[in-house]
Amino acid sequence: MAFPSSPSWESMEGMSPHAHRPGELAAFLKAHRSRLDPAEAGLSTPGQTRRVPGLRREEVAQLASISTDYYTRLEQGRLSGASSAVLEALADALRLGEDEREYLFQLAGRTGRRPRRRAGSERVSPQLQQLLDNLRDSPALVLGRYLDVLAWNSPATAVFRDFAQVPHRERNFLRMLFLDPRVRGRYTDWAPLARICVGFVRVATDGHSEPGISSLIGELSLVDSDFRTWWAEQHTSYETAGTKHLTHPATGDYSLDWQVLRTLDGQQMLMAMTAPPESNSLGVLRRLARVSLADSDA
């Protein structure tokens, strides 16, 4: 294996020179290697004593598959930066959590890092679920990175449908917008919203689709010409607010303002919908809530 020994091995793409803080990066690396148990890393020798706790520099370099000289200069703040690949390898070697991993990239002046998906990262925190439930007059959904519907509140059920009745693998807002007549039929201005959602997923994939979303993209491309066109156009969207026009068999047409708020780690989004001021939409939402309650009691 070839080890990097000079900055020429590093790509400067994605670097933000003004954000690079070599002194803080050096302290961060040193602090985290000192906390690691060599035995847990499989590096201890029975009967061997160490003068200082944690891993040695050469051991971190070994675990990250880089040269000891390169790592030493990085820890001493004598390098202008490191590539995303090296930083990911160091984060793995140092067993950093996701927040620590993100901070490592910040210290190295790296921008545009694609967040990793972790096991369990699609679970909604109890605090976010409580916030969702407290939005009594505002339909709201928690969406995953690829618009998987992770959680919802009662008003969202009243406006769209009972998401709990949707098979888990089909519980994706993009999929339902195109393939679920009940969700698709709720929007009188369906096309603009659907195109926004296609753009959201295009941005999220960043050219690195995971198996689940790749399968969904393939399915939608086969069965829906609008999706096929918008996806082929490389359409992207960063819209996070607007007004949408909806309809319901029990109430007729109405409008809702919407906005998307991202969690700090960027992996989940809260999409909340509210009645525009001086509209009849709040009354519509309350009527839909009563209809939904009556249907559930039937």
Automatic annotation (TrEMBL):
Transmembrane segments: none
Pfam families given in the database record: HTH_31 (PF13560), MLTR_LBD (PF17765)
Domain of life assignment: Bacteria
Region span, Disordered: 1-24
HTH cro/C1-type domain sequence ranges: 54-104
InterPro entries in the record: Cro/C1-type_HTH, Lambda_DNA-bd_dom_sf, MLTR_LBD
Descriptive protein name: Helix-turn-helix domain-containing protein
Species assigned in the record: Streptomyces tremellae
